[in-house]
C-alpha cells in the first residue's frame, strides 16, 4: 500500500452518500433508542416510528448505491502519517460498519409484524408471517443497533483523535 499526502479526498459521490448516510442512520438510531429507553407518549412514538420506517426504507437504495460505489471506486490514498496497522484497523472498522448497517436495515424490515406505509405513498406488507422468526429478527435488530452505535462512536472518536494529532482525516470527507 502506498502512502501519499493527506490532500486526497473521496469523490463527490462518496462524500454525499457518506453525509446522507450519517444523517439518516444517526437520526433513526438515536430516535429509536430514545423511544426504547424513555417514556414516550403513544402519538409521538407512532409518529417517530412511522417516519423512521419510511425514511430508512427510502434510504435503502442509497445505501446499496453507497456499497456499490465503495466497492467499485478507488478511495483516496492513505495518510502518510497513518501506520499500516492503523490503516488496516480503519478498513476493518468501516467494513464492520457497513455489515452492521446492512443487518440493522434487513432485520428492521424482517421483524415487522404489520404492514407499513412509506410516506403515505405505498404499503409494504410484512415479509414474514412466523412471529417466532420476527422476534428473532427483532432481537437481532436491537443487538446490531447497539453494536452499530458503538462502532459509529468509535469512528467519530478516531476521527477526532486523528484531527487532534494533526492527521487531516476529516478533510478527506468534506
Automatic annotation (TrEMBL):
Q: Which UniProt keywords are given for this protein, alphabetically ordered? A: Cell membrane, Electron transport, Heme, Iron, Membrane, Metal-binding, Transmembrane, Transmembrane helix, Transport
| One annotated GO molecular function | metal ion binding
> What are the Cytochrome b561 bacterial/Ni-hydrogenase domain coordinates in residue numbering?
10-174
Q: Name one GO cellular component term.
A: plasma membrane
Q: Which GO terms describe its biological process?
A: respiratory electron transport chain
> Domain of life of the organism in this record?
Bacteria
Q: Which cofactors?
A: heme b
Q: Does the keyword Glycoprotein apply?
A: no
Entry's family note: Belongs to the cytochrome b561 family.
Write down what this protein is called. Cytochrome b561 bacterial/Ni-hydrogenase domain-containing protein
Amino acid at each position: 500500500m502506498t502512502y501519499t499526502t493527506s490532500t486526497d479526498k473521496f469523490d463527490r459521490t462518496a462524500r454525499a452518500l457518506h453525509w446522507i448516510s450519517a444523517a439518516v442512520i444517526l437520526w433513526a438510531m438515536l430516535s429509536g433508542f430514545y423511544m426504547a429507553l424513555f417514556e414516550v407518549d403513544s402519538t409521538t412514538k407512532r409518529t417517530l416510528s412511522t417516519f423512521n420506517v419510511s425514511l430508512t426504507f427510502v434510504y435503502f437504495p442509497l445505501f446499496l448505491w453507497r456499497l456499490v460505489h465503495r466497492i467499485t471506486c478507488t478511495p483516496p490514498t492513505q495518510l502518510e502519517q497513518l501506520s499500516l496497522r492503523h490503516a488496516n484497523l480503519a478498513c476493518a472498522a468501516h467494513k464492520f460498519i457497513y455489515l452492521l448497517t446492512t443487518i440493522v436495515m434487513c432485520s428492521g424490515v424482517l421483524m415487522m409484524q404489520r404492514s407499513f406505509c412509506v410516506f403515505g405513498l405505498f404499503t409494504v406488507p410484512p415479509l414474514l408471517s412466523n412471529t417466532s422468526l420476527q422476534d428473532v429478527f427483532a432481537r437481532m435488530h436491537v443487538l446490531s443497533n447497539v453494536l452499530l452505535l458503538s462502532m459509529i462512536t468509535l469512528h467519530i472518536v478516531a476521527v477526532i483523535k486523528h484531527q487532534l494529532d494533526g492527521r487531516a482525516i476529516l478533510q478527506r470527507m468534506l
